[in-house]
Structures are given as structure tokens and as C-alpha cells.
Fold ABC transporter ATP-binding protein.
Amino acid sequence: MIKVEDLHRHFGGFRAVDGASLEIETGSITGLIGPNGAGKSTLFNVIAGVLPPTSGRVTMDGEDITGLPPHALFHKGLLRTFQLAHEFSSMTVRENLMMVPGGQTGETIWKTWFQRGRIDREEAALRQKADEVLDFLTISHVANEKAGNLSGGQKKLLELGRTMMVDAKVVFLDEVGAGVNRTLLGTIADAILRLNKERGYTFCVIEHDMDFIGKICDPVIVMAEGKVLAKGSAQDIMQNEDVIESYLGRGLKNKDMVSA
């Protein structure tokens, strides 16, 4: 689905992404790991159009999407979440979901005067879909809560719910486990697996928690110094000597598999 070829992103003399090439296969949950500063989030930002590449190419289903802005990629079904959730804190959880789909009739001022019936029907459909998403994610109990009052894990579930409001094709999740307790992290993992198996979502996940990666991801790609170091199953990656030396070794020695 996504193919990255010799991608570079430089900041002055610093090569954050330095010739990375990888593929994310349709229907996979691909893990992306590596030490801090390896270029993982920058790679996500370039693929998702947040940053332009210095050079290189990104394709989606064979179509060149290199440098397309996020809103254009959004309409193609490519979405990206961030390590820090970007909720609209003063709106309810349900309202955060309902505002995701673009092209709503109520977005045009004159239509709010002359097409009230159409707007009401659209809002009713969006409300129903939002409630279905909340049920799927098991957070219906916070539907009317202000999004800013949610816990870190609930905010991550809300971000995942946003992708469901537009039936995304491929979702890039950046440190979905950051600041999330173990119980909610399990809920998030289950939701990702269900979206993958039941709805055909393709995921690429940046995460430092190797238990989480091992539970949901296959394959796993390792980045170091802006390049792809290795690719394989989670078990193979944790036994790869090059990976252990550059990244996992510190965690294994400390009996703490990769801290954030």
C-alpha cells in the first residue's frame, strides 16, 4: 500500500531521515521502532504531508503522493495521529467525532439559513455514527464529557475514533502508548486489532513498548540514524544482534525492554 523509496529529510546539516526505504503492506499492522532521534516521527511527518521531503518518493497504491498536503492525503484515506493528542478540549467527545468528516452542509453560512432540514439529517447521521464508534471503542460512557477532561489513554482512543469517522485506509499512529496506563493500553491494542481484522485497516505504529509491539505488529521495522536497520517479526527483531547492539541491548541488560 505505502512504498517509501530513498527518502531524505534534512534540517540544515542534520539528516533526520537519511535514505530510508520501506514498504507497508495492505492489511498489515507494521511496527516502527528505534532509539530516540532515529527519525521515526520525521518519517511519519513526511509520509503524511506534514513536512516536505528533501528528496525521495512516497507512493500509495502505486500513486505518487510525495509532498501532498495532509488535507489531500486525508481525502485519500491516509491519516496520522500524534504522540500528544490534538483534541478540541472544550467540545464533547461526541462533538469531536462529529466534526471530522469534511464537506458538511452546515460549514457554509448561507446553507445554514436555507437548508436546515438537510443539515439536521446530516447531523443525525453523524451522531449515530459517532455513537457507533464510541461503542466500538468502549468509551460510550464519556460521550458527553468535555474532551479536555479525558485521561491520556481515553484521548488516544478518541484519536483512533476520529479515523473511524472517515473510514481510513491507512493510519499512522505515533506513540499511541505514551502516558497510557496498562489497562487502557490493552483496550487500544484490542481496538487496533479489531479495526485491522474486521474493517481492513492498515496501520503503521511507532511505539517504545515492545510488549505492545509484539502483541499487535507484524512485521516490525527498525530505524537508526535516519535509515532502516532491519525488518522482521517482533521475535526475530529482538534476536537480531545489530538491533540489540544499536537499540534493544540497553533495555535487555536492564531487564526493561525499551523505555520511552
Q: What stands out?
A: Confidence is low (pLDDT under 50) at residues 251-260. The longest strand covers residues 14-24. The radius of gyration is 19 Å.
